[in-house]
Amino acid sequence: MNSKKYVITKLNTPIKISGIYTVHYFKYGKNFIFEPEAHDFYELVFIDSGTAHILNGTETLCLKQSQAFLHLPKVAHTIYTKNEFANSAIISFECKNKLLKNIAGKVLELNDYEKSLLNKIVSETKANYLDKLNDVHLTKMTKNLSAPFAGEQMIKNCIELLFISLIRKVEKGEQTEEVLSLNITSDKIVESIRKILLDRLDSSENIDLNEISFRLGFSKSYIKSQFKKKTGVSIIQYYIDMKIDKAKKFLSQQKFTISEISDMLGFGSIYYFSRQFKIQTGMSPTEYIKSIKADNIL
């Protein structure tokens, strides 16, 4: 037997995330402001919809959708909005590698691959910890004893991949391949969008393209084109059609008033609900109820 001597190749891992402090997902109202703070760990701020302003030391910057900013340890910072809404993901973590300083203090534009990593970090955090991610007073994460296998390692790996990608772009100008997107077909994207819309259907809180884009890790233009190509209608129109179908079921049960159904499905006003209902069915909600009663008599 020919015995070969193999030599192990030690892997160089220049970016090592040793732990997280908090992971947040916030929906800011108009003129929101967070109390300035400084701590001895890194904090990444990402804006997935709207516009927010940040204070980094003595510097004030404006962050728009898909932009991020990495605060260095011990630098005072805060975030606030000016007469508009914004959604953000914020990750605070420990990392001893000095390479992160190369991208700190810069406005970073995230591509679809990087946004998909960030989305995975948030979704894994929700599955692995019991805390509410919109709790501004959160200082310690509470582990979920029923968490999926290796969830924390997924969080660690995704954070490291995110910063590897950002460092490559900033330092070398490389275009990062959308590795996580390669195995996702258009059919899967459309099905994922349908599931997101269905999950939100029973809530009075509407969902928008910014949130769908963030949750899937693709740009708004991409998911809009793929959905329209496969279904023939826009995502918003499809969502409204789902709501009208749900409204028809509620009206047929005759357990709720038209106003209550409008509120339950997040239409905002009875006028808007009635207008959309008539567009879809050719009848007003009141006429629809009368038609049901007539059918029951027959």
* Fraction in beta strands: 15-25%
Alpha carbon gyration radius:
24 Å
Shape: globular
Mean pLDDT across all amino acids:
87
Helix content: 40-55%
Number of strands: 7
Return residue spans where pLDDT drops below 50 for at least 5 consecutive residues: 174-183
Distance between the termini: 89 Å
Order of helices and strands: EEEEEEEHHHHHHHHH
Which structural class is indicated by helix and strand composition?
alpha+beta
Largest sheet: 7 strands, antiparallel
Number of helices: 9
Topology record:
Elements: E1 17-28, E2 42-56, E3 59-64, E4 67-71, E5 77-80, E6 86-95, E7 107-109, H1 112-128, H2 151-172, H3 186-200, H4 209-216, H5 220-231, H6 235-253, H7 258-264, H8 270-281, H9 285-297
Antiparallel strand pairs: 1-6, 2-3, 2-4, 2-5, 2-6, 4-7
Helix pairs in contact: 1-2, 3-5
Structure keywords:
298 residues; alpha+beta; seven-stranded antiparallel sheet; 7 strands
Report on the structure:
- By secondary structure, this protein is α+β, with helices and mostly antiparallel strands.
- The protein has nine helices and seven strands, in the order βββββββααααααααα.
- Strands 1, 2, 3, 4, 5, 6 and 7 form a seven-stranded antiparallel β-sheet that branches.
- A hairpin with a 2-residue loop joins strand 2 and strand 3.
- Helix 1 runs antiparallel to helix 2 and helix 3 packs across helix 5.
- About 3% of the residues have low confidence.
